[in-house]
Amino acid sequence: MEPEKSKNPLHVFIIPDVNAAGKRKGLPVWAGHQRGYIAFQSITRRAWSLGITHLTVWALSRDNI
């Protein structure tokens, strides 16, 4: 007997773009990052509740350094 397979992925990869999101709304850079952080908290809670065991976030690029 095989174990039941989840319909949800076990690993999700996220590439946030809080700089662009903040600029579109006319927010300062720090406010875009703050909103991104709040969204990330919500995403991680939801991912956990769906049974997603691995969450990868690309949070730094050469343009941000």
Q: Would you spell out the secondary-structure blueprint of this structure?
A:
Layout: E1 11-14, H1 18-24, H2 29-49, E2 54-57
Parallel strand pairs: 1-2
Task: Give average pLDDT, whole number.
Answer: 80
Q: What characteristic shape results from the CA principal axes?
A: elongated
Biggest β-sheet strands, sense, barrel: 2 strands, parallel
Hey, roughly how much beta strand do the residues contain? Answer: 5-15%
Oligomer: single chain
Q: In total, how many domains does the architecture comprise?
A: 1
Question: In whole angstroms, how far apart are the ends?
Answer: 51 Å
Cα Rg:
15 Å
The strands making up the biggest β-sheet line up spatially as 1-2
SSE-based structural type: alpha+beta
Counting DSSP H or I runs of 4 or more residues, the number of helices is 2
**Approximately how much helix is present in the residues?**
40-55%
Question: Spans with pLDDT under 50 lasting ≥5 residues?
Answer: none
Number of strands: 2
Order of helices and strands: EHHE
